[in-house]
Amino acid sequence: MPIPEGYSIPITAPLYEGPTYKYIRTNTILCVFRTTKEVMEKVVPKPLVYNSDLYIYAWVNHLPRTTGFCHYREMFLTIPVEYPGKDGMVAGNYNAHLYLDNDSPIAAGREIYGYPKKLARVHFTEQEDVLTRSVERGGHEIFKVAISPRVSLPTDPIDPLVAQLALPFINYKLIPSVVEGAKPDVAQLTLMELVNFQCTKLDKGPATVEFNSSPADPLGLFEVEEVIGGWYFEGGYDLPYGSVLHDYLKEE
pLDDT band at residue 252, thresholds of 50, 70 and 90? Predict the structure, then answer.
């Protein structure tokens, strides 16, 4: 029997269509901080290898124009990692947590790529010389990042710490089975690489980052040992299809 037509459900009113998704005139606040080995061990799944510097990237995107999703705001917690592939180590960025304010990119991100996206309120403020972005979910403020941009940097070559975000993104894609007690239908590490990545403006300055826990979102586990730096940048990129990097079910 043929599969019913439609890229996503409901089939008569799909929530989203397929990639490629184009992101135009984006702006981002980024704070890189150092955490502890204990945190890394909790949040990075095997066989991924977390970076020896113990760096985590906390960043918030303002996405004013996208094809497929219109406008939304999104927070990432991303960890530079490597995957031990057959042909050597594959460098990338593991997405540990994402929060955003639009249902269609949440569904597409989770169902296609395995992005761990949750619905939340992402707030922006700009007062005096400080840009602040915060995430509120379930009535609790669980995250806040702020930067005071002080110095304009060249965009070619781009700062190496910012250039890390042009590397592939890795997600743990988990889809449970409808059958009680059964194994997941999908348990994979997926890989997705941005294309046409552009940085048209780049500023650097002192930054702060804060995490708090709620009953549903224990972000307080992310210990901030040292803030490495803060950046503000503008640009754009395309989000295409990806690939399966590792299939846990085929290990068995």
Answer: low
Length of the chain: 252
Q: How far apart, in whole angstroms, are the C-alpha atoms of residue 63 and residue 28? A: 9
Question: Which two structure tokens, joined as six digits, stand for 70?
Answer: 């219109």
Give the Cα-Cα-Cα angle 163, 96, 232 (nearest 5 degrees).
Answer: 35
CB proximity list for 187: less than 8 A, separation 6 or greater:
172, 173, 174, 175, 247, 248, 249
**CA 16 remoteness from chain centre:** 19
CA atoms of 229 and 204, how far apart (whole Å):
8
Q: Indicate the pTM of the whole model.
A: 0.95
Question: How sure is the predictor about 2, in pLDDT bands with cuts at 50, 70 and 90?
Answer: confident
Identify whether the C-beta of residue 20 lies closer than 8 Å to the C-beta of residue 240.
Answer: yes
Domains (ranges, CATH) in the chain? 21-230 (2.40.400.10)
Characterize the bridge pairing of strands 226-239 and 21-34.
antiparallel
3-state secondary structure of 40: helix
Phi, psi of 225 (to 5 degrees): -80, -35
Tens-digit pLDDT profile for residues 82-98: 999 988 999 999 999 99
Task: Say how far apart CA 103 and CA 239 lie, in whole Å.
Answer: 17
DSSP 80-139: EEEEEETTEEEEEEEEEEEEES-HHHHHHIIIII---EEE-EEEEEEETTEEEEEEEETT
